[in-house]
Design brief:
Blueprint (H helix, E strand, L loop, with lengths): L1 E3 L17 H8 L12 E7 L2 E9 L10 H15 L4 H19 L4 E5 L17 H11 L4 E8 L4 H10 L2 E11 L7 H17 L2 E3 L10 H13 L8 H10 L3 E7 L2 E11 L2 E9 L6 H16 L2 E3 L5 H6 L3 E10 L5 H26 L2
Parallel strand pairs: 4-5, 10-11
Antiparallel strand pairs: 1-2, 2-3, 3-4, 5-12, 6-11, 6-12, 7-8, 8-9, 9-10
Helix pairs in contact: 2-3, 6-9
């Protein structure tokens, strides 16, 4: 066993790098902050029995993107959600007060976490990872980071039931994350679901817009305003703050499928899609919010691609009505967290979230997001 904090020291000639992308591992270890401005984490690697196991370390602090922060996800992001929702003032006040209580509970954890297999995306795709060394990995990380909780993010009921059992068997607790929507061509889709997908494609065909999978080097500056319109301006400042450098890097170095829609020479929407096995995940997205029906058209291209190739789509959260109408099915997503080694205050704080908030969150998500 060895731990590497510098990329240059890793003996790549002695290990099987898959399923990791070597360039992305280098990018993460040399400073993910330059690509995602509101994530401050360092990345290290365990070499164990010939397997490279990267992990990211968060040493407390707030104002982090929700994709790498519990406070960011459960409190800051939810405050933004409550502010956007139309509800009576009394209920909105009560919701914000409950979130403030949650913030206090999480503050007592210290927000010190170690995330195993970090992807720095809203969803981590575990389909290519083996979990046969969880117990030893946990032992190593607990010894190295005795004040940090150990975390595996974004496992779901559809794809990861066996991995979730393995984690629970080692002593990890489930922490409810979100409701997500997964599309599988093999599911029995209704006539209306099939018809809505066809409408999306017909709308694109009549639009006069064009589709490409390529982005020219001088076009990356067009991506940033489109991303910001959707995720930062419309939704929450706690979404990832990607940089132009980051989009250029992932386009050149990662094996993503790109769905780019243009109006003449101008990019009006883009989607960078990650693939693991037969599962697609639209990891990066942006669009011109002023173009009517553009979300339907861009997503329709992805759904049509998945149907033609027999792929499933992990559609993440959001846009519930659209995704359900096109035949996606809802599932619960969880983080798995190990905190048994922590001192009493952070231990109790995490216990409140896993033993109290998780059952309540499951109930509410099924009531509000599954129909």
């Amino acid at each position: 066993m060895a731990i590497y904090t510098n990329f240059e020291d890793i003996p790549f000639n002695e290990v099987d790098i898959s399923p990791f992308n070597k360039a992305y591992l280098k990018y993460m270890m040399e400073g993910i902050h330059r690509g995602i401005e509101n994530i401050h984490a360092r990345v290290e690697v365990i070499l164990l029995n010939g397997q490279l196991i990267p992990y990211s370390v968060k040493d407390g602090g707030n104002k982090e993107s929700w994709i790498h922060s519990f406070t960011g996800q459960y409190i800051d992001e939810m405050h933004s959600e409550v502010d956007r929702m139309e509800m009576p003032g009394v209920i909105k006040t009560l919701a914000n007060q409950l979130l403030n209580i949650g913030r206090t509970i999480l503050r007592f954890t210290g927000e010190k976490t170690v995330t195993v297999f970090p992807s720095f995306m809203s969803t981590t795709m575990y389909e290519g990872f083996e979990f046969d060394q969880i117990q030893e990995v946990t032992r190593i990380l607990v010894a190295r980071f005795p004040k940090h909780a150990i975390v595996y993010r974004t496992l779901n009921d559809k794809f990861h039931q066996e991995k979730m059992k393995q984690l629970a068997g080692v002593g990890y607790s489930e922490m409810i994350s979100r409701a997500i929507y997964i599309f599988a061509p093999s599911d029995g889709h209704s006539k209306n679901e099939r018809k809505d997908l066809k409408k999306d494609m017909k709308r694109f065909e009549k639009s006069g817009y064009t589709f490409t999978s390529e982005i020219k080097d001088d076009e990356f500056s067009q991506l940033m305003p489109l991303y910001k319109q959707v995720y930062l301006d419309k939704y929450s400042d706690f979404n990832p703050h990607y940089t132009e450098d980051f989009f250029r890097f992932i386009y050149n170095e990662l094996n993503l499928a790109w769905f780019v829609v243009k109006d003449s020479d101008r990019i009006i929407s883009f989607m960078g899609v990650s693939q693991t096995g037969n599962v697609l995940f639209p990891a990066y997205f942006g669009m011109d919010q002023s173009v009517k029906g553009l979300y339907f058209m861009t997503s329709g291209l992805l759904y049509n691609f998945a149907k033609d190739n027999g792929y499933q789509i992990n559609n993440s959260a959001g846009a519930k009505d659209y995704k359900l109408a096109r035949g996606s099915r809802p599932y619960l997503e969880y983080h798995y967290i190990y905190y048994k080694h922590l001192k009493i205050v952070p231990f109790v704080s995490y216990a409140l979230f896993t033993k109290v908030a998780t059952p309540l969150g499951k109930y509410l998500l099924k009531k509000l997001q599954f129909k």
